[in-house]
Predict the 3D structure of the following.
Amino acid sequence: MKKGILVLMMTTILLVLTGCDINGEVEYFDYTDIFEFSDIEVVDIFTNEIIEGISINRYLGSENIVLIPEEINGKSVIYVVSDFLKTDSLTYNDNVEVLVISKNVMSVGGGHFTGAPNLNAIIIDEDNEFLLSYRNGIYQKMDSGLNLLSIPLGDGTDYYLHEDTLKLDWSFNSFDIMNALYIPMGTRISEVGVAIYAGSFINIDTIFVYQVDYDYYVAFFTNYEHLPSSDLIITKIQIVDES
């Protein structure tokens, strides 16, 4: 399959009622209430001091819950590299289940740790002005909306987007197959980043949308100008049963 081509299998893209209600009720485990930030110890991290602050480069420990601290040696932790949870160039840490990012972190590296097989949730301090966590995923705050940066590999292959999502970028980096992507009513994704699926391909089995948004997304996902230089296969787009 040539790069830059999106294959949308139109044989099943007719107006089909799915019988699935997605009004924010897609099941997921909410990790945000199981601990307090102050209860988590900072352990086993390798850092690099840069002009603006501290970059977190690698986690070397074996804890299940890992906290990115606000400061190290009096300097703000502002960046976390994409290989943070790798044990070597090819292998991810399989102990980490929850990653907690503190309020000073401004950005995270491409890939966003999603290859860690047992990572179930990425939680952002609610006072962070740059990043947001929603349903265990991580979003970048933009002026006009949100950019979905990462869905943890261990959280499963169904995901319900935040209603303010405008962009998908690195969103499905670790997945070969996504079972279902649920788009809230009125949400209008307007951009797909070049790294949405890491330069390879991903098969999204079903994108669930509301009837009012159906025509928009059929047009959007068949317009190659919106899409990055990789292969995206969408089996079907289905309409939510609002009854």
About this structure: The CA atoms of residues 137 and 151 lie 5 Å apart. The chain has one domain: 28-200. The domain at 28-200 is CATH 3.80.10.10 (Leucine-rich repeat, LRR (right-handed beta-alpha superhelix)).
